[in-house]
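In the design runs reported in the main text, the only information available to the sequence generator was the tokenized backbone. The following block is the verbatim input for one such run; it is reproduced so that readers can re-run the procedure and compare outputs position by position.
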């Protein structure tokens, strides 16, 4: 048809491409927000009991070494769970809160930084792709 543009389905294809991207961006920023919350409410606690440790596999296997243990907060509450990272021993300081535990505060900050960087990279890619799409659309209009 002479009046119909050649790229009539491009908007639909872009919508289909953006759906998983938006989901991924939402997931990354959701994790980032969770890390920030944990950083704000967590505190350094002392390990009171270690019930066993499991060594991780090969570095690329995805298996992270952890120890099962118990810890005590300053106000007397206790917590129990898996302490991921290096082998923990009784008397070690860990960073924990209600429902989460990290081997140390810097490990949480590192996780938060990597997640934030990944989110910014995704956002930058979206902006770059939008700019490239607009430039291409303008070029196509000028060509016709």
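Verbatim output:
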């Amino acid at each position: 048809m002479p009046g119909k543009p050649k790229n009539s389905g491009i908007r639909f294809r872009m919508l289909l491409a953006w759906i998983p991207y938006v989901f991924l961006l939402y997931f990354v920023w959701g994790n980032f927000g969770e890390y920030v919350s944990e950083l704000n409410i967590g505190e350094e606690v002392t390990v009171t009991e270690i019930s066993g440790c499991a060594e991780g596999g090969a570095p690329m296997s995805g298996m992270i070494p952890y120890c099962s243990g118990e810890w005590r907060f300053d106000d007397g509450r206790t917590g129990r769970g898996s302490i991921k990272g290096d082998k923990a021993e009784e008397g070690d300081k860990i960073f924990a809160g209600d429902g989460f535990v990290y081997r140390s505060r810097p490990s949480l900050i590192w996780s938060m930084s990597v997640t934030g960087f990944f989110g910014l990279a995704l956002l930058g890619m979206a902006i770059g792709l939008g700019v490239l799409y607009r430039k291409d659309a303008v070029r196509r209009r000028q060509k016709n």
